[in-house]
Amino acid sequence: MLRKNPSGDYPEVSSSSFIDPTAIVCGKVTIEENVFVGPYAVIRADEVNEEGEILPIIIKKDSNIQDGVVIHSKGGAAVTIGERTSIAHRAIIHGPCTVGDDVFIGFNTVIFRAHVGMNSVVRHNSVIDGLDLPEAFHVPPMTNIGPGFDLSTISPVPPEYSSFSESVVSANHALVEGYKKLGNEL
User: Which one of 66, 139, 144, 180 has the minimum C-beta count within 10 Å?
Assistant: First the structure.
């Protein structure tokens, strides 16, 4: 469901993207080409900052926002999800936040007040709060990263995780095409 926020902003969604009918996309949100937004996802840009403004939530092309994901922002801050990025089931991306291109964010992970560098993999049940991650970074499952965390204790992304991320993007591209085709038949 697409809807306005209280400030009157309405989402802009590319016609080549698929938004599941159970998902809610509200307010100053831009969804670019070939994006999949799964069942029960919530993408909400509706809080204003101290100046009464709302910065956008932008989901760039060829990305996927899977079932039950929540993307929101505190005080109207911006959120950007890069190209070919996968946000897995029930993850929370809370702005201010930037997730780079070709990133995989695992199940039940929380990202808040952070930048995740391109080609990174953040595995399931992790929390990234208030510390930026460099490019090609691998966060093991159930890792909590915040200010003061020594990032040098974690190794780069193993090649098998990069190929897994690519396969998830590819599978979700097929879902966009399949669901769009079903919608045209009804």
Answer: 144
